[in-house]
Amino acid sequence: MRIITADGHIEWSGYLLKEDGTSVTDARGYCVRGPAPTVDQVRDAIWSLLTERERDAFEYLNGTLGAGGHVERWPQDAQHIFVASVEGGSEGDYIHVEASTGAAAGQGALILGKTFMGPDASWRLARRIAQMLGVSR
Hints:
- Helices cover 23% and strands 27% of the residues.
- It has three helices and six strands; from the N terminus they run E-E-H-H-E-E-E-E-H.
- The protein has one domain.
- The strands form two sheets. A four-stranded antiparallel beta sheet has the order 3-6-5-4. Strands 1-2 form a two-stranded antiparallel ribbon.
- The relative contact order is 0.18.
- By secondary structure, it is an alpha+beta fold.
C-alpha cells in the first residue's frame, strides 16, 4: 500500500500494490486489501505537501503512538475527521487532527501541531490540513 499525494490531497489505496503499481492478488484473483496507513505516514504526507513557509510556521507536527507505544493505524472506520485550531493554555496555538468512529465520540488527537505564529496562522494551517484530508466544512 502507498499513500498517494495528488492535487494537494492525501489519499491511499486500500489495496496492496507491487512496485510497478499493479495490485497484489490472492489465489482466486481478488485484490488483497492492505492495512490502513499509520498515523505517522499520514503526518509525513501532510508535511510533504506543506510549503516551506507553512513548515516554518510549525514548532512541531507530531503523530501519536497508541497505548503501550505501538504504532497506531489511521482509523479506516472513521465517520468524521476533525481538524481544529485550538488556543494554547500558556503559549502558542495548536492544530488538532482527530477522528470519530461510530464506537467512540473521539479518539483524541491523532496528529498534533503547535505554532507560535498566532491564532491566524493556526487557523490557516488547520484549514490547509483539512483541505489535504478532504474534510469539508
